[in-house]
């Protein structure tokens, strides 16, 4: 300090655009983006999801066309979710093991059209169960762990055989990463990667997604006996440590924005590829304010995504993937 004039003035590096660009610590790149999308039954279907403006459900025959822009913009990977009609759901989620289910048909269509795009398959039973829970129900309605994991293992093998490069278990059963790794290796699928939804919270921010896939209205109760309590973050570190020990290649924290502290803690502790899922409710919340003109759409979108990079993520699953890739191309 020289009198009241400090030698170190942090504003100097903010003085103009070139300096700000030189000192920027984090940057969003198209390689950081994973686009979640919804596949539904039928032919020629492309229908809007009212609670997720800009996102649609498409039938397998229209997937390739739907993904064309993402592919040409260089979005590296897609995460596919099925909209299983009620008639195909049952208590055990048996449609999950149908080799011709929506996920498998979708994967085949996408891999044929874009063999070099990464394809991430969600593994959990909720899109297929009549009760909307992620696993099998036991007495008194409790979600059975090991019995559910046995089905998830078969599901993972089936999805990998259909063309998914990455299996992403989103069910939060104990021990499923190790069991699925063993099942994949046993089926000769040693290169299939595992992206674990390691710290997935029992969150209110999944509402629009559950509406989009049709499991919201079916869900009786909640998922608090397997998804994490929003009050906890030390427990997230234990979940992540277990999944790494069980063979996870990549780790995910979900939701994203309300859990940036968890992401930062995981990043500080574990040198593992780390991803955030900016979930449907976060997207809906931002979109609603953008559509009303209350937020500048591009600026709020890019700031929300950059926050994940700053917290320590390698990449982000986001419904903004295509819009963000478009914006990055313009810059
Ligand atoms: C299913 C699953 C959910 C999401 C991804 N996989 C919903 C849930 O756990 O109820 C939510 C994604 C989103 O909200 O965008 N296991």
UniProtKB/TrEMBL annotation:
Positions bound to Mg(2+): 239
Gene3D superfamilies according to UniProt: Aldolase class I
GO MF terms held by the record: porphobilinogen synthase activity; zinc ion binding
InterPro entries referenced in this protein's UniProt entry, alphabetically: ALAD, ALAD_AS, Aldolase_TIM
Active site positions: 200 (schiff-base intermediate with substrate), 254 (schiff-base intermediate with substrate)
GO biological process, any: protoporphyrinogen IX biosynthetic process
Domain of life: Bacteria
Secreted among keywords: no
Broad EC category: lyase
Keywords (A to Z) from UniProt: Heme biosynthesis, Lyase, Magnesium, Metal-binding, Porphyrin biosynthesis
Enzymatic reactions: 2 5-aminolevulinate = porphobilinogen + 2 H2O + H(+)
EC number: 4.2.1.24
Self-association and partners: Homooctamer.
Protein name: Delta-aminolevulinic acid dehydratase
Organism: Formicincola oecophyllae
Gene behind the chain: hemB
